[in-house]
Design goal:
Radius of gyration: 22 Å
Number of helices: 15
Helix content: 40-55%
CATH topology of the largest domain: Rossmann fold
Oligomer: single chain
Strand order of the largest sheet: 8-7-6-9-10-11-12
Largest sheet: 7 strands, parallel
Structural class: alpha/beta
CATH superfamily of the largest domain: NAD(P)-binding Rossmann-like Domain
Order of helices and strands: EHHEHEHEHEHHHEHEHEHEHEHEHEH
Number of strands: 12
CATH architecture of the largest domain: 3-Layer(aba) Sandwich
Distance between the termini: 22 Å
Number of domains: 2
Length: 327
């Protein structure tokens, strides 16, 4: 049996679990960014593919491997995998749903606090000898505590659920929108209240994005959505950059239409220097906090993810059904 890994070889080796299946499988690692032709040439055939969450797995690549039975995302996202093509060929596609939920929830709360506490501007002020000037200004303008904010979660999957749990520790009022409203017992368990999406955007102090990229969610946070938000509201995105219209958000920050934004994801990735959000200057830049898409890449997440991956490989090798099937 052969496994093709598209991603980082050092990461693959670091998180090898202590499972019998590992020694039974030959592994080939192709670097992220390799072309289909390069991958095919170095692999031969493959029974399983594990792909970095932003590495594409095309129909052509699947066709090159007659023995292929499983394509597995290393992470939660699977939008780079041609799921329809896999379905047509009878190939299972799986992800690591929930493996990064707590880690990404921590990142979402971190970005909320960083925006509320003017972390970017404050760090620069201290390093450039302007500490007292910025401190005195912020004492007059006011610094909001997270516990005084109404936080709206767009989506209510595993990450949003873990975010809600952490927000309640701060004393937040948490609302949510989901494509399908959750049952009453769920809302009671997580102490959340449902709002229609337009009302959530209009009334919440912080709007945090927790939906996957689909044709319906791509650019759902557009100029109209941003214009409906409160002028001092903060947008948080730890999901995918494609969900937010990047140009519209840059314009909203430049014009002061929203209070700020904290983003762990931009589009496209890798982010280039000419990206409209990377080009912001002055006050607009100070109100934007960025992190390099690290919300879900903790050691704990990778240990959980690779254990699930290898157990799914073992299940498929034995003719059993894997878990977390998305196809």
């Amino acid at each position: 049996m052969k496994l093709l890994v598209i991603g980082d070889e050092k990461r693959f080796n670091k998180y090898l679990p202590d499972l019998d299946i590992v020694s039974q499988v030959e592994t080939v690692v192709a670097p992220r960014g390799a072309t289909d032709d390069e991958i095919i040439a170095m692999t031969g055939d493959a029974d399983f593919i594990v792909a970095d969450a932003i590495s594409p797995v095309s129909a052509r690549l699947m066709d090159a491997f007659p023995s292929l039975k499983l394509v597995h995302s290393e992470g939660v996202a699977y939008n780079a995998i041609d799921v329809a093509a896999a379905r047509e060929r009878g190939i299972a596609v799986c992800n690591n749903a929930g493996a990064n939920a707590g880690a990404v929830a921590e990142q979402a709360v971190l970005l909320m606090l960083a925006c509320l506490r003017h972390l970017r501007e404050g760090d620069t002020a201290v390093r450039t000898g302007r500490q007292i000037k910025v401190k005195e200004r912020l004492m007059v303008e006011g610094i909001r505590e997270l516990g005084d904010c109404v936080v709206g979660l767009v989506g209510m999957g595993a990450i949003a659920q873990q975010t809600a749990i952490r927000l309640h520790a701060f004393g937040c009022d948490v609302a949510y929108w989901n494509h399908r409203r959750r049952p009453a017992d769920f809302e009671e368990e997580f102490d959340v209240r449902y709002l229609p999406l337009d009302e959530l955007a209009r009334t919440c102090d912080i709007v945090s994005i927790h939906v996957p990229v689909t044709p319906e969610t791509a650019n759902m946070v557009d100029a109209e959505f941003l214009a409906s938000m409160k002028s001092d509201a903060i947008l948080i995105n730890t999901a995918r950059g494609e969900i937010v219209d990047q140009v519209a958000l840059a314009r909203a920050l430049e014009e002061g239409a929203i209070g700020g934004a904290g983003l762990d994801t931009l589009s496209p990735e890798p982010v280039q220097l000419d990206h409209p959000l990377a080009q912001l200057e002055g006050d607009a830049a100070d109100r934007l906090v960025l992190s390099p898409h690290i919300g879900g890449v903790t050691e704990g997440m990778f240990r959980r993810a690779w254990t699930t991956i290898w157990r799914n490989i073992a299940r498929v090798a034995e003719g059993d059904q894997p878990v977390n099937v998305v196809s």
